[in-house]
Write a structure and sequence with these properties.
alpha/beta; Rossmann fold; 2 domains; six-stranded mixed sheet; 10 helices; about 30% helix; elongated
């Protein structure tokens, strides 16, 4: 990007810079480590799931499907296996295989929500025995995420079946629960199952509609984070630059990233933009180019408008900090100039950005 500019200063506004560090000798990166090697979803599709979930006024099976789809969209890319099974009746929608957001999303979408209510009882324990045959084929740690409304009215009780799995696998397995239970008896059963092992994470489905609760649930169930210090390799001695006529200095600022389908500046970038505003105001007759970009999700026309809104949002922030609006030029590129791989979740996030350069 901007390779034709011969002289540039890349301002990396990281935390160390704000504390006065002139040259960082090392930097840190976040390492995401999955909590298990296999994640198996066990979803109730019995007749009771056709009734409304009173907290949201929507059928429980629709709440379950939409919640799982939302979780899948927000999961980081993990080098693990995912499987999707239902009970009442038992069916395999995705055999355990390497995680793919698209494949897992298709499996959740395929779980039926238009079914008969009566005559479809809830064999939570019985069908779990069938799933256990699939678990026996897996290597490594296993997390089972059960989506249940707290009904189990035919076949063996689920508690002893789960206890048998804990005895069989020991620390290799853990059951988690997304609960749509409503009556006291239903809630009591979910609490009983969740209390078998302290490794369990239990959450009510209506709580998962909150962004911060969902983010905590994903971290608690699916992955941990740790910071790793990385010391960059020493740069080779530069070759003497040929004598050239001085050219206009260009300052390229750190990219500003946005959430999906949003143009609101995230709080962590406010200080970066304030520092950028100070740099701009220090220049005589400055000219700032603010470029908006998006990832490749959605129609091109819509993304072009979204990228313009992102560029305008940054420009407005700079003006609020005292930058002359006549010194700012905004450009919208939509999805036409990806800097990162749009086939990965991380690449798409990095492409939702605004770039700035001061000429």
């Amino acid at each position: 990007m901007f390779k034709s500019v011969r002289r540039s200063i890349l301002l990396l506004f990281i935390a160390a810079a704000f504390m006065g560090a002139q040259h960082a000798l090392a930097e840190t990166r976040t390492i995401i480590e999955p909590r298990a090697d296999n994640f198996i979803f066990y979803v109730d599709t019995s007749g009771s799931m056709m009734f409304d979930y009173q907290e949201l006024g929507t059928p429980k099976n629709v709440v379950a499907r939409d919640t799982l789809l939302q979780l899948n969209q927000e999961l980081p890319d993990l080098d693990v296996n995912f499987g999707v099974y239902t009970y009442g009746p038992y069916k395999e929608f995705l055999s355990p295989s390497s995680y793919s957001e698209a494949a897992v999303g298709d499996a959740f979408e395929s779980i039926p929500v238009e079914t008969e209510i009566f005559g479809r009882r809830t064999p939570m324990g019985r069908d779990l025995i069938q799933v256990s045959e699939k678990l026996a084929e897996l290597r490594g740690d296993i997390a089972v995420i059960a989506v249940t409304d707290g009904e189990s009215n035919i076949g063996p009780r689920p508690g002893p079946v789960m206890e048998a799995r804990y005895q069989e696998y020991g620390d290799r397995i853990c059951f988690h629960f997304i609960s749509l239970a409503q009556s006291d008896a239903e809630k009591a059963l979910v609490d009983e199952l969740a209390g078998i092992n302290p490794c369990t994470v239990k959450i009510d489905a209506d709580e998962l509609q909150k962004d911060f609760v969902r983010a905590d649930f994903i971290r608690d169930v699916f992955y941990t984070e740790r910071e790793e210090t990385v010391t960059p390799a020493p740069e080779p001695e530069p070759e003497p630059a040929p004598a050239v006529e001085p050219e206009e200095e260009v300052i390229v600022f750190s990219n500003i990233q946005f959430e999906f389908d949003k143009s609101v500046i995230r709080p962590q970038y406010a200080e970066i933009l304030r520092e950028a505003a100070r740099q701009i105001q220090d220049r005589t007759d400055p000219h700032v180019v603010v470029e908006g970009h998006t990832c490749n999700i959605g129609p091109a026309d819509y993304n072009m408008g979204l990228s313009q809104r992102r560029a305008d949002s940054v420009a407005d922030f700079l003006v609020e900090q005292g930058v002359d609006k006549d010194a700012i030029e905004t450009e919208a590129y939509g999805l036409t100039r990806p800097e990162f791989d749009n086939d990965t979740r991380e690449g798409r996030q990095l492409n939702r950005r605004v770039e700035m350069r001061l000429e």
